[in-house]
Design goal:
Shape: globular
Radius of gyration: 21 Å
Bound molecules: 1,4-anhydro-D-erythro-pent-1-enitol, uracil
Strand content: 15-25%
Order of helices and strands: EEEHEEHEHEEHEHHHEEEHEHEHEH
Distance between the termini: 47 Å
Structural class: alpha/beta
Strand order of the largest sheet: 9-14-13-10-15
Number of strands: 15
Largest sheet: 5 strands, mixed, barrel
């Protein structure tokens, strides 16, 4: 295992540029960003993207289109957001929308998919000479609540009655997270609860740090204090390579462990500080950090993994949940732009 060398990020006139750490790029006459259907000879990237200050990425193309339309409204921009064009319409791999200084891009599911998108996005921001860029992943996740780690008294006894006052008086409950809660990631960790991402390069495993921008996480938490309609908390986010066996689910096509083993693992994850589980945060944190992008991860929890594996909430409820990280990010962007 090789540790990655640290990088000094270059700055120009005091501005923080988006940095690529690849000497081969300078020798190339043209750079084709194949999966984005953009290129340095076919497109004037500085003119198209030079003013970008916020990049928001998320798994689903429809959600990222909805986010772009939401930002259009929030920033009070002219024109009909319905007419918004997908900049990557020439490919069906990813979608991309630009709303003033905000870029909204989809990344698909899992580490390989987001990693391809990030290579090309980071080169795009570099070719466009963007500076002082903040990047945020808005996503979905499975939550780890602590309420049911030890059954509360009324659950383990024969009394099958839960009154509101019983819930209120349970101090553990107040520290727990319910589905629909939003988690701001302080540290992205792997399946072994380590804050690192392992990139296989040729036949070496290179370890990269998954540190995120602490000030940005604090700023997001501060913004969340002004949003009263859902709970937001800060915690570690575990990134896995699979939704089923990789996240300890019992309901995949394959499963070789018991419910007890699953709960024991999730409990250890919780004890290590993990509050939600998703599939992209470690590589996102590692790549953004190496390239001079201040990065944050904000995910809503769709279910409590200590309660079950299947996502049973209705489409309406899930749609509302998925707007929650968007509201938080919109508030941060508006605050930064002096609009709030
Ligand atoms: C969250 O949701 C997706 C799996 O359903 C995955 O992309 C993730 O990180
Ligand atoms: N996304 C995940 O990766 N896991 C979940 O449990 C829910 C959404």
């Amino acid at each position: 295992l090789l540790p990655d060398s640290s990088i000094e990020n270059k700055s120009y006139n005091g501005n923080r540029l988006v940095y690529v750490k690849n000497p081969h790029l300078d020798l190339m006459d043209e750079d084709i960003l194949y999966h984005l259907d953009l290129g340095t000879k076919t497109h004037n990237l500085p003119a198209m993207f030079g003013d970008i200050k916020f990049v928001c990425v998320g798994g689903s193309p429809n959600r990222m289109k909805a986010f772009a339309q939401f930002m259009h409204k929030e920033l009070g921009l002219e024109g009909d957001s319905k007419d918004m064009k997908d900049i990557c319409a020439g490919t069906d791999r990813y979608c991309m929308y630009k709303v003033g200084p905000v870029l909204s891009i989809s990344h698909g599911m899992g580490v390989p998919s987001i990693s391809i998108m990030l290579h090309e996005l980071i080169k795009l921001l570099h070719h466009a000479k963007c500076c002082d860029v903040t990047i945020i992943r808005i996503g979905t996740s499975g939550g780890l609540d602590m309420i049911f780690l030890q059954p509360p008294p009324w659950k383990s006894s024969n009394i099958n009655m839960t009154t509101h006052s019983q819930l209120e008086s349970n101090s553990v409950l107040n520290m727990g997270i319910e589905p629909g809660s939003v988690v701001i990631t302080d540290i992205a960790v792997n399946s072994f609860f380590k804050p690192q991402f392992e990139q296989v390069i040729l036949d070496n495993v290179v370890i990269r740090s998954t540190e995120l921008d602490q000030d940005l996480a604090d700023e997001l938490l501060e913004c969340s204090r002004h949003i009263k309609n859902f709970p937001t908390l800060v915690g570690h986010t575990m990134c896995t390579y699979d939704f089923y066996e990789g996240q300890g689910r019992l309901d995949g096509a394959l499963c070789s462990f018991s419910n007890e083993k699953k709960l024991e693992y999730l409990k250890r994850a919780h004890n290590a500080g993990v509050r939600n589980i998703e599939m992209e945060s470690t590589v996102f944190a590692a790549m953004c950090r190496l390239c001079g992008l201040k990065a944050a991860v904000v995910c809503v929890t769709l279910l409590d993994r200590l309660e079950g594996d299947q996502i049973t909430a209705s489409h309406e409820v899930l749609a509302e949940y998925q707007q929650r990280p968007q509201q938080l990010i919109a508030m941060l962007i508006k605050k930064r732009l002096g609009l709030w």
